[in-house]
Amino acid sequence: MKIIDLIKKQGDFELRTKSVTIEEGKIHGIIGGNGCGKTTLCKLIMGMILPDSGKIDYEGLDIREITMTAQRPYFIRGSVYENICYPLKIRHIQPDEQKIDAWLFRCGLEGKKRQYARSLSSGEQQKVSMIRALIFDPRFIMIDETLSNLDPENLELFEQVILEIQKERPVTWMLISHRLAHIYKMCEVLHFMYKGEILASGSKDKILFGTEDERIRRFVANEVIKMEGNHAAFKG
Amino acid sequence: MQVIKEFLDTFFSDVGVFDAICVTFQMAFSATFISSVLGVLLGLLLERAEFIGKKIVIRINRTLMGVPPVVVGLIVYMLLMRRGPLGKLNMLFSIQGMIFAQVLIITPIICGMTYTSLVSRAPAIRAFARTMGATPIQTQWLVVRELKNELYFAVVTGFGRSISEVGAVMLVGGNIKGHTRTMTTTISLLKSQGIFTEGLTLGILLLLMAFIIQSLADFFQRGEKSDENY
Ligand SMILES: Nc1ncnc2c1ncn2[C@@H]1O[C@H](COP(=O)(O)OP(=O)(O)OP(=O)(O)O)[C@@H](O)[C@H]1O
Ligand SMILES: [Mg+2]
User: For residue A15, what are the contacts with CB-CB under 8 A and spacing of at least 6?
Assistant: First the structure.
């Protein structure tokens, strides 16, 4: 996928990207401070909002094969099960009960199947929204801080899930997170955003440890000091 | 039915209460049904469409939500009277005429309420539908389904407005016994004859029926859990 000179004004904020290629089949990470335009970029890719100028070249990828899990997931009225089935229902696919049960069990949500989705705890909501996004086998998946409220064990679980899926079939991922350890562990390519611009794209080591750019250094400084102590562990 | 009719006829003076009840409900159900279809469609359209003067249209809609029924009655009367532009339809002093006037009163209410709930809720629902890969029709259907409580409330409000309305019904229907006399115009008539107790009884009956209808509607809505975890 190619992002070509997008410009999008939203109130005082302006997103302005140079041309960036999102390489297929890789796990990408987007990092940057609050309000730098990460969610806005995802919304543009998702086609939820239209750019003022520039365009996105999907290179043959159908928009229906792209999905995004939101920072604050939306749940339709109804149970956890109905929510997970929604993307299948609109594709006229018979839901595979066993598969769904297996997912719920794996995420520690067994017994929550019939619960009203909006009454789940925020971490549970994030897990359900992940299952719901993965269940219809999309090929481009954006995860907008959806894993932010997960406890370490559950975060680890979804990291595993992502890597498993990655082995099974070619999926392009875009992870947004402020947990740099998580980003460092998962991603191959990082994009650093600053005030609406994509300042730098490249390998994770280059962006996190090998940059000259003062703004990036400042952003990662705190976390990197912590990370470097455990560097070996992360590498493993 | 016959028993109820006789009971009502002996209890109330000779004003045709049974027929009035039938006419009221026939009118209210028809007018609410037509207005709901029109109002919800217009509301959906208004929220989707972008055009110059949209703000004005919305403001006019808001104004019409509170339009005095008697004014609508007068306008409809002038339209339907024999020399009026729609005189050929022969709808003056008929239930159809009353329904016509009520549709004009209720449609803006349902449209306005639909529009308001859409404006606040639809964007999030559409964004979600997009992430799931829903088609435009599936998206629109999802919006309606997600807002069904709000839409239901709009329809019930319209229904309440319909059965309680006097002005337009009186002008356009003419309060003809056994034909266009409704419960509200009957009450009005009873008052002018100085028969207060019966008027009041009829009023309570009207409220009671509205309550029963409301309960029935709620009954079909049951099982809708809405407890959320904030
Ligand atoms: N509809 C809007 N109208 C006005 N401003 C907007 C609108 N949507 C977003 N913005 C602004 O655009 C900027 C970027 O928002 P965005 O949600 O993309 O940030 P973000 O990088 O995802 O931040 P966070 O890490 O906090 O999620 C913010 O400053 C926000 O206030
Ligand atoms: Mg965001």
Answer: A6, A7, A8, A9, A37, A40, A41, A44, A196, A197
